[in-house]
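Step 1: inspect the first sequence and its tokens.
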Amino acid sequence: MNLHEKYGLRRVINACGKMTKLSGAIVLPEIADVVREALNHFFDIDELQAAAGRVIADASGAESGCVTACTSAGITLSVAACMAGDNLGAILQLPDATGMNRRVVIQKGHCVNFGQPITQAIRLAGAEVVEVGTVNGCSEAELRHALERGGVAAIVAVESHHTVQHGWIRLNRVTEIASEYGAPVIVDGAAQDMRLGELVASGADLVITSAHKFLCSTTAGVVAGRRELVDAVYAQNRGIGRGMKAGKEAVFGAIAALEKRMAEDLSEWTAEQDRRVELILRALEDVDGLALQVDPDPNGCPFSRARLTPDATKTGVTAEQLAARLAAGDPTVVARAHHADEGYIYLDAVELTDEEIAFACEKVRAVLSDPRRD
């Protein structure tokens, strides 16, 4: 069945990476098979989530885990869990947090927008967001001051290249300071599933990552952490979490993906990504006015991307124009254009086949050889 043709949708060549706006990831066949089988049966959802918790614990080193609708839902429910615990009266009271510790501390440089502001995901639980520091720095003194004022439900930390990368308090230090004040730490690690064990080992109390990015599963959020708090996250399904619940296809997809990850040879996976990046470099190495380099993932995940920097004085095309022209037409080639205003774009090969790499590179070549201006 050609779904693009049936519903009038453009084909997408995804050179951007694991992006929600591009519908997550290609679900791997072995994961899709598990989900497909699950669709034919009924399950006690509490038992299913308990099974998922055991797999998440095995995969992450955490005490327990559960599955939510997505990472954003996991952030909101984790905040709610830190405020209300598993007290049903408090759960039913939210988002009215009267009488609860409701201040949630976050470094200002972590106040990112991932499709919605993370501060909104926090406030949806009924919490009060307390931003500490400035956009280009946060000191331990500022974090301690916010904690010493009292009423703190949690600290939220974001692991992403979108955060400020200099002058902020690193996660390991945040967890050390938080433990002095008895404040739980929630980590938004949406695209950091390859670092899940590392983030749990940092001392964070709850870590949330996406199942539909490098885990290549159906859309879901994976929550890993302290058993007491994980239980409280799941308990929010009887309150504000009802609209954020995960269905059987999400839970089984996450289980299958984590089991595959545990059996996977990561060095082989990395070698395959390196091979794809090399294909891009070879295809474009002779394009006049185009500088190429390989950049490692800024969060430390085990793969790299090809950086393309067009010289507008030679090609007549800026990085922003290159990204826009690649995206035009059917199929659309969606480059990773986060830094286009800085003069370069990336071709992320993780979701590209060899044929798609060839198509994308040929389109880059065509755009840069076309003298017309936007």
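Step 2: inspect the second sequence and its tokens, then contrast the two.
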Amino acid sequence: MNHRLPALLLILCVVANVSCTSRSAASSTNPHRIITVAQSGNADVIGSDSASLQKAADILRPGDTLVIGPGTYQMDASLLIPSNVTVRGTAGQTILLKSPGVESALTEDADFGESYLLVTNPERFHPGMGVAISDDTLKEGWDVSISKVVAVHDHMLQINPPTVRDYDLDKKHARIQTSYPILCTMNAENVTFEDLTVDGNKTANSYLDGCRGGAIYLYNVRNVTVKNCVARNYNGDGISLQISDNVHVLNSESYGHTGYGVHPGTGSANSVVEHCHMHNNGDIGLYLCWRVRHGQFHDNVIEDNGHYGISIGHKDTDNEFSNNTIARNGVSGVYFREETAENSGNRNTFRNNKVLDNGTAGFYIAKRVTDTVLTGNEIRDAHGHAVYKAEGAGSVRLENNTIEDHTPVTEPRP
């Protein structure tokens, strides 16, 4: 994954109906309101799609609550939420379902800052659709442009905001596809999501990784809570938080995604993930990306993910993991990725976790990772190693762990 931040990333927030930019407060004396959306009956907005939901979100003022009634809402674009509000559904009954994806090749290059794209199949698109622009090389991380169709003119799509890279048609198959985050807040603070189910409809959609998208996507936010929510079946990541501080993911479930269940990344600090269930994801349950620091990950169940239960890497330091169950993940329960000495995931503590029946190792400690503390854990697996220290790994402090059924601690011979 490419983790280079584009200099003009904030171009995402140029247009109010596309971005999630914080809106200014009307007045601190305004009473807090409840704005309702329903598919029928009495409500402030009646409808069953993303346009109806966005219409309601656009009239929110600080302190308001958006209540989305039961039903399945067809999401042709992101639902973009401003600062200082709560969005609440009915648990298990309010479902935001991503529309089936469509795609078209471009018929000319899409250059940096482009707002008009010539495409092969314009009939597949309509105004209001969320889209992603990419090519065979610029297809991951911050290199993908996320935008929205504003108009369709013959074979030309007008989008806003403009592209953030140069996409090559002839050699790299530049394309546009309807990939986007579903429930989203960006450049915002003091937002709560409660009792919502977000379904990515992954079999009918193309892949978009967690730098730019997810079933629930948070970018450059502070003091955001995701509580009692379900994220499922996204062709990418379930809950992704990027460049964010003090995000709490509580009592939520994230499963069935192609990528990661929960993905704190890109300088996200003070993250809290508690009482969550991350399971049956194609790659990793809990993925700490780059510079995830001072996080608290407690009382979660992380099981049956394709490769790793937890993955820790680039400058992911000073985090604590306690009272989690990490079970039956394909390769390792906890996997430390190899980095340089300066950039390793150091000073992480695992306390009172159950690490059970994972593929080849309970804990895999990579080269140059140091100051890892494992205390009071139960590690059981008949298949591999309890703790595997790769050649060149730094200090691992083991205290009062219960280790059963396999090689307890493996270190390479000098």
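Step 3: confirm your contrast with the notes below.
The two ends are 33 Å apart (CA to CA). The first strand starts at residue 34 and ends at 38.
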